[in-house]
Structure to design on (326 residues):
């Protein structure tokens, strides 16, 4: 086992501490480049999931909800600084567990830092609005209140960045967060949990596992909103479960993105753009160019240039000098 994952192997992060799961099932963590096994992601038990929910509901109203936007912003900036300290370690973990080239992993961690800094400032400023009254003497205003406990169900392709976008927004608004990472990238997500030391223990928690763990989180009456990124089929299930409970849900179920090239386009730039849009992160991006429509007048030239661009791509272990991981 690689030492980078030793501290989080078969662990959960509940109430501010790592603990070995008592679950008997797990998901092996395999380096896609070397097929080396690094450890396993635990299948959290129902009792462990319920424990995390109870902790979140205790700490959020008692500690976090009552802080001012300024105080929450300061704590979140501290989280961003912690992520920056761990950037090389987190990037290596992403490459070893998910497979993306190390440079792209470093970029993902950089964007993760930016997300926490950004939402820290949003939290400081976006607490409500004063509106022009419709009648003299009236005061119209809106005040934003936290919902409570947010459940985040993550995909494997950008596990830290998408978690940061959702968690930072939820935390900035005064909520607690429980993340259920992808079975494929659970250990990388667990490694990130140590950056939340500036926050109250239990405000951010991570329970690993598969669909049963996700469903227990979503079905609980003590979780109050959800965010999901993943497949259409799973998104339909998530939407149905949340809809039946009138539980707000933020959902993104990929894209179907055309790349259109017309004769007026600067061809060399269009070719490089098409290659980048198609092959970054091995094409495992919601905004990846999935279909190329090329005008017949430039089709042959474009195809030839794109094929030449594709031949330049270096493929291999993400820790080496490559453009594409496994």
């Amino acid at each position: 086992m690689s030492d980078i994952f030793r501290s989080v192997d078969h662990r959960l992060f509940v109430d501010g501490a790592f603990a070995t799961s008592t679950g008997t099932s797990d998901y092996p963590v395999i380096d896609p480049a070397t097929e080396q096994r690094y450890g396993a992601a635990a299948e959290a038990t129902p009792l462990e999931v319920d424990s995390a929910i109870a902790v979140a509901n205790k700490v959020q109203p008692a500690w976090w909800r009552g802080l001012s936007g300024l105080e929450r912003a300061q704590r979140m900036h501290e989280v961003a600084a912690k992520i920056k300290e761990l950037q090389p370690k987190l990037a290596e973990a992403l490459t070893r567990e998910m497979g993306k080239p190390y440079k792209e992993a470093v970029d993902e961690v950089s964007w993760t830092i930016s997300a926490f800094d950004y939402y820290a400032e949003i939290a400081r400023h976006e607490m409500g609005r004063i509106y022009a009254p419709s009648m003299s003497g009236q005061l119209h205003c809106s005040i934003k209140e936290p919902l409570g406990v947010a459940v985040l169900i993550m995909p494997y392709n950008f596990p830290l960045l998408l978690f940061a976008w959702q968690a930072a927004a939820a935390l900035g608004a005064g909520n607690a967060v429980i993340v259920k990472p992808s079975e494929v990238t659970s250990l990388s997500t667990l490694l990130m949990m140590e950056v939340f030391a500036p926050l109250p223990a239990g405000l951010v928690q991570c329970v690993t596992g598969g669909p049963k763990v996700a469903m227990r989180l979503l079905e609980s009456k003590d979780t109050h909103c959800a965010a999901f990124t993943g497949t259409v089929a799973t998104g339909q299930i998530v939407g149905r479960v949340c809809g039946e409970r009138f539980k707000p849900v933020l959902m993104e179920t990929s894209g179907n993105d055309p790349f259109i090239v017309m004769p007026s386009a600067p061809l060399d730039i269009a070719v490089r753009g098409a290659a980048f849009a198609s092959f970054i992160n091995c094409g495992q991006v919601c905004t990846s160019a999935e279909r190329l429509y090329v005008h017949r007048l430039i089709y042959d030239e474009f195809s030839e240039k794109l094929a030449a661009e594709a031949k330049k791509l270096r493929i291999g272990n993400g820790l080496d000098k490559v453009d594409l991981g496994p």
The CA atoms of residues 271 and 306 lie 6 Å apart. The chain has a mean pLDDT of 95. DSSP finds ten helices and 13 strands in the chain.
